[in-house]
Every structure is written in structure tokens, then in C-alpha cells.
Write a structure and sequence with these properties.
- The protein is mainly alpha-helical and 450 residues long.
- It has 2 domains: 175 residues, no CATH class; 226 residues.
- 76% of the residues lie in helices and 0% in strands.
- The protein contains 17 helices and no strands.
- The chain is globular.
- About 1% of the residues have low confidence.
- One of its GO terms (molecular function) is metal ion binding.
- Its EC number is 1.10.3.-.
- Keywords: Membrane, Oxidoreductase, Transmembrane, Transmembrane helix.
- It is an enzyme of class 1 (oxidoreductase).
Length: 450
């Protein structure tokens, strides 16, 4: 009798699964948009770090070979090791995201894959080559890193180059969906025959600015994540040499993170302006009249834009605090006074930019305040970098390490919120101003492949 129960149990489970209404199940947890978007955000968390580390690791190794610093080599190895260990996690959520797209949005998925067929093939080839470069770079580290240093570094750069090409193509498809591809043909099944149409859609008004924004973002926030990781690893270090290495690594992550962070608001301004240029001249309905720009700046997404501005200001303030606290490593601590001065200016300007008074007498004062914040941070950054040449690593303060961890967390939230904000700006369309591709509020649409 127990054997019969065991045999019948799988059949009962399968029968139960067959009765589940997936559309109702999705509604219970927020709908298809929440499930699909959440999956993509988890993937992007790992993907952005992967891209940043893949580009930065060979640069650090080459820099270390030029300066004779073994710390650079060790840090580059740690970054590639992280990519090797976490790639499968990010890839799993990427595959899950693709499954959800095909199942819940079959029309737009089939159309995009058809329209960008050749470019997607190039992207997949680039991904394979990037993975080949990564695994060869990592597993031949001890064999090549000494006797064949140049060849080993070249493998690392191939990893960074091909993953950047993959990011480039994905950015083109993404910005096409946000802008609606002004001046390019609508999505049709016949477009598979034309590489020119795919390239025309890829090079839409937002493409260049978004590519710059993503490239620098993938070098900035992963650098803050690196600093936070090193701050945690410092506590676990067993000897003085490891403590010195992790303390030094926090400084590397901080300087790279702040250096690229200062470029982001400027590029972000031009990115939003390019979004304004992509507003459709012939909107299909009232919802499309303002384009993604209207929804981002004045519509339902404007609250997310302000939230992101607040988070960016917090990033700048925490960066100044971290540089001030980190400058205590200087034997004379001479650089702390100017860093504190510049940091206070950056904090006041940043807080003013997010206050209700920033639009008085004109809204341009908000941009002026942000520019003052960037310039003041640059002053603190230059002072910190000049003093860094004389730093003695090995005993960072607890408040400094806590600030770095907070920086890593806030930077991750900013990166994910930007992705959510950008994608949400095209609602109710999946491809802006194309009425055949909208957010489905009911069951998944029919007509897959038609």
C-alpha cells in the first residue's frame, strides 16, 4: 500500500499543477510586470558588476605590471574570481527573464528578436568570446601571469572588449524600446532581411548617451561595491599583510568610484535631453504625446527621478565623508582640512539642489547647484589623490569602513533605480509609440510568431 501511494503522489502533484491558473497567480504577486521586472533587476545587479570587473581587471593588472605593484595583480585576480563564481547566478536570472518575456510578452519578444536578429547573433558570439576570455584568463593565471604577462593581459582585455560589445548591442535594443526609434521603421517580421534597418534602429537618439552612461556606471558603482567588499574582508583578515591589502583595496575602490561618479550627472543631463529629442512627432494617442521624456519628468515616473536625485546627492556626500575619513592614513593628515572644506561645499550645494528652494528664481539654479557639488567633489578628489601617495595602509577606522559599506549599498540602489526608472518611463508601451506593443493588463497575448 505505501508503494502505491508513492507511485500515485507524482501524478497527484502534476494534476494539481495542471489546474493552476498562472494569470491569477501572477496577479497575486503584483502581475507580469513585477515578476519580469524584478527578475531583470536581479540579473542586472550581477551583470553590471560583471561588466565593470571584466573591463577593470586587465587594466589593473597592466597597471601593476607597469608599476611593479603585486597588489594590483592580486586585486585583479580577486575581481576575475568574483566574476567566475557569480556568473552562473546572473546567467540563471537572465535565462529566467528570457523565459518570462517569451511566455508573457510573446509578440514583442518575437518582433524584437526578428528585427534585431543579426545584431543579437553578434551579441551572443561576443558573449561566448567574453566567457572564453574570462575562463582562460582566470584558469591560466598562475601559468601565464609571470612568464607570459603580455599574452595574459591581452586575454583579459579580450574579455572586457567582447562583454562591452554585448552591452553595446543590448543598450541599442533597450534605447530603441524607450525612444520608439524615431525615424526608423516599425517592428515587422520582414525586417529580418535587413541588417541596415537593425543598425538604424540601434543608433536611435538615446544610444550614444546611454552607452556612455552605462559604461561609466558599470565602472563606478562596482568600484564602490569593491570598496565595500574590501571593508568587510578587512575584518576577516588574519595577518598584517592581508589587512594592509584590503585597506589599500578600499582606497582603490573609492577613488575609481568617485572618479567615474563625477561624470555621471553630466552625462545623465545629456541622456535626458536625448530622451527629449526622441519624443514622437506623431503620437498614436494621448499617452504617447509627451514621449518617455514627459513621463519621466512630469508624469508618473517623475517621483522616481527626484528619488534618484536624492540618492545621487547622498552618494556624493558619502564619497566626501569617505575621502575625509580615509585621509587620516596620511602621516601628517595635512589633506583632511581641504577635503573637509570641499566636502562641506559639496554637501551644501547637493542639499540645496534637492530642496524646494532649488527652483527659485528659476529651475536652472538646481543645475547650477549640482555643478557646484561636482566641482567641489573634484577638489576633494584631487586633494585625496595627492595625499594618497603617502598613505600608510593597514589600520582604517571603523567609521571609514562603515561609510564604504553604506556607499556600496546606496550605489547599488541608485543603479537599480535608474534601470527601473528608465524602463517604467515607456509605460504603457513596451516599444514606445507603437500601439501593437503595449503592457498587457490581462492574460498573455496570442498570435506568437505571427
Amino acid at each position: 500500500m505505501p508503494a502505491e501511494i508513492v507511485l500515485k503522489l507524482p501524478l497527484a502533484v502534476l494534476h494539481f499543477i495542471a489546474q493552476v491558473d498562472l494569470s491569477d497567480a501572477l496577479s497575486e504577486v503584483g502581475g507580469a510586470r513585477v515578476i519580469t521586472g524584478g527578475t531583470m533587476l536581479i540579473h542586472m545587479f550581477f551583470a553590471q558588476i560583471f561588466v565593470g570587473f571584466a573591463i577593470a581587471a586587465p587594466v589593473l593588472q597592466a597597471w601593476g605590471a607597469r608599476t611593479g605593484s603585486p597588489r594590483m595583480d592580486r586585486l585583479a585576480h580577486s575581481m576575475v574570481r568574483f566574476n567566475v563564481l557569480t556568473f552562473s547566478t546572473g546567467a540563471t536570472f537572465a535565462v529566467l527573464f528570457l523565459v518570462l518575456l517569451v511566455g508573457l510578452y510573446p509578440q514583442v519578444t518575437a518582433s524584437l528578436f526578428t528585427n534585431f536578429f543579426y545584431l543579437i547573433v553578434v551579441a551572443m558570439i561576443s558573449m561566448v568570446l567574453a566567457l572564453w576570455g574570462m575562463y582562460t584568463y582566470y584558469y591560466k593565471w598562475h601559468r601565464y601571469a609571470v612568464l607570459k604577462k603580455g599574452k595574459h593581459i591581452a586575454l583579459g582585455f579580450s574579455m572586457g572588449l567582447f562583454i562591452w560589445i554585448w552591452m553595446l548591442i543590448m543598450t541599442g535594443i533597450d534605447t530603441y524600446m524607450v525612444s520608439g526609434g524615431p525615424g526608423t521603421p516599425q517592428l515587422t517580421a520582414e525586417n529580418i532581411a535587413s541588417l541596415g534597418i537593425s543598425l538604424q534602429a540601434m543608433f536611435n537618439p538615446m544610444f550614444v548617451e546611454m552607452t556612455l552612461h552605462r559604461t561609466i556606471a558599470n565602472l563606478s558603482w562596482p568600484a564602490f561595491a569593491l570598496a565595500a567588499w574590501a571593508a568587510v574582508m578587512y575584518v576577516r583578515a588574519k595577518n598584517e599583510a592581508d589587512r594592509s591589502f584590503y585597506d589599500w583595496s578600499t582606497s582603490v575602490g573609492l577613488t575609481w568610484g568617485v572618479g567615474f561618479l563625477m561624470l555621471q550627472p553630466i552625462i545623465g543631463f545629456f541622456l535626458v535631453y536625448s530622451m527629449k529629442l526622441s519624443v514622437p512627432e506623431n503620437p498614436v494617442d494621448e499617452a504617447a504625446a509627451g514621449g518617455a521624456y514627459g513621463r519621466l519628468t512630469e508624469g508618473a515616473t517623475s517621483g522616481l527621478l527626484y528619488t534618484n536625485l536624492v540618492l545621487v546627492v547622498i552618494l556624493f556626500v558619502l564619497s566626501a565623508v569617505a575621502m575625509y575619513l580615509g585621509a587620516e592614513r596620511h602621516p601628517e593628515q595635512a589633506s583632511r582640512v581641504p577635503i573637509r572644506f570641499f566636502g562641506l561645499i559639496a554637501a551644501v550645494a547637493g542639499l540645496y539642489s534637492i530642496s524646494p528652494f532649488a527652483d527659485f528664481p528659476t529651475y536652472y539654479f538646481r543645475y547650477i547647484a549640482l555643478l557646484v557639488m561636482i566641482v567641489a567633489t573634484l577638489g576633494a578628489f584631487i586633494t585625496y589623490m595627492r595625499g594618497r601617495l603617502r598613505f600608510k595602509y593597514g589600520s582604517p577606522g571603523g567609521l571609514y569602513r562603515a561609510t564604504l559599506i553604506a556607499l556600496g549599498v546606496v550605489a547599488a540602489v541608485v543603479a537599480l533605480n535608474m534601470g527601473f526608472m528608465k524602463s517604467n518611463s515607456r509605460v504603457p508601451f513596451t516599444v514606445y509609440n507603437q500601439p501593437d506593443y503595449t503592457i498587457e493588463v490581462g492574460p498573455p497575448p496570442t498570435g506568437f510568431g505571427s
